[in-house]
Amino acid sequence: MSASELAAAVGRALDVDGEAFHERAREEATQLKEEIRSGTFDNTEAIVGMELELYAVDDQTDALRRVPRQLLELIGFEKELGLHNAEMQTSPQPLNSHGLAAQRDELKASLLPAQQRVRSEGIRLVSDGMWTVPPNGETARDYLCDCVEEGGVRIGTNMTDAVRYHTMANTEYPSAFELDAPHVSLTAETVMPEALITSIQPHYQIPHAPDLPEYFSYALRIAAPVLALGVNSPFFPPDLYDDAPEEEIVADAHMENRIGVFESVLNPPEGDSTPPKVCFPPDFDSVEDAIDDIVEDDTIVPRQLQSGTRFDDDFVHFRHKHGSYWRWVRPVFEGPTRSAANARIEFRPLPAQPTVDDAIAFEALVAGLMESLVRFEHPIQSQDWETAKANFYAATRDGLEADIEWVTADGATTTATDEIYGELFEHAREGLEGRGLSTEAAHEYLRPLRERVDRRMTPARWKHDYVRKRVAENVPLAEAIWGMQNAYISQQEETLLEGTFLDWLDK
């Protein structure tokens, strides 16, 4: 699509009557609630799924690479925000031993030929929380900020040509389009800085849709300790840092900058009264409250939509609103057919992980906890929401070293890391066993994460230790960060499909 065609499409999107769109979404939400009350969205099985995002680098230099659109289609991956991004989704599977194995095998089965195909173009796909090496001959600042104006419409030069991404830069919603992190400052004219980050997103389908608020409250309270295990983006591309002492930049680094990037780019700037869209969500008293929260969320890009052939196309405007309902944990209501209609929880705070087996370990952990904590009515549900939120942002800053508050099975409050994770892993194991996994299989899925706790080592800490040591040896910060990135990519080449992050630590 040419710049003029894209600008014209954005112009048409901006002309949509937002109030009429919003009213249609409200009407569809009323119908959705009736379907949920009638049992349409209930399922006998708990179902799991996974979204996996990657970015492309030059096979020789580790520099970020734009992926030709035809190549992306050829390998069967979906477009994401940046031209360097690729995304894949697994087919939903029942939560049992075969379903989890199918999730893992599907990821590997798709990634193996994709890596082989892009390698012929001198490209490698990387699973990582944030890229740090800009394209050859460019700075990260220029790559993220480059845009043109066509017919009064701002077009991000390095953004994929999906109309919704470019429309977001031209609406009245006051996204800040800036980075706000220790010693980092950047302001752009589009949402492109969000393309710094990549994620995994485990999904868990609720057996009985009206019970979603109970499951959701548990998901919010495990968000902090689960994120603390998975942190993987302590450093930005070096040219984005302000002029500050390098030792200070390293010392002040957050273990998981992905959270701050998403929030500071897409939310309104500080002081604006517009409610933020990217945030830690509230508890819900009922499934109807969850639906209403989606409906009343600000719509950045309303659209004129026609109902299609899917069952959930009866709620097409509601589903479109949900697409920009950016909560760190969010409810989802959809299904291509009436029999496949489902209510699920999408767990969104996790960055992309070093290997496929690490990603599947998080899927197993989240699903196992959803099964067990609800079944045993674990008292963590009584934890004050403000505490759960504070825990979450503490995890972004400090990872496993965060001062996270937990309520144990006997109702006691603790901040002891070993006690918190000992209980989490035990409940996850019980949840997986309750779905038919053997004790040995459940342990095997969770082992990569359990050993992260035992060794007090996350991917972010591994990166941070590397850079901290090099800077202490008087290596320039940029060289230290790029050396870390080279080491990460080299380790991943051997372990992405056959191994875990633990293999990096045993060398």
Automatic annotation (TrEMBL):
Protein name: Gamma-glutamyl:cysteine ligase YbdK, ATP-grasp superfamily
Coiled coil: none
Matches recorded under InterPro entries: GCL_type2/YbdK_subfam, GCS2, Gln_synth/guanido_kin_cat_dom, UCP012666
Annotated organism of origin: Haloarcula salinisoli
UniProt lineage: Archaea, Methanobacteriati, Methanobacteriota, Stenosarchaea group, Halobacteria
Top-rank taxon, per record: Archaea
Pfam families, alphabetized: GCS2 (PF04107)
GO molecular function, one term: ligase activity, forming carbon-nitrogen bonds
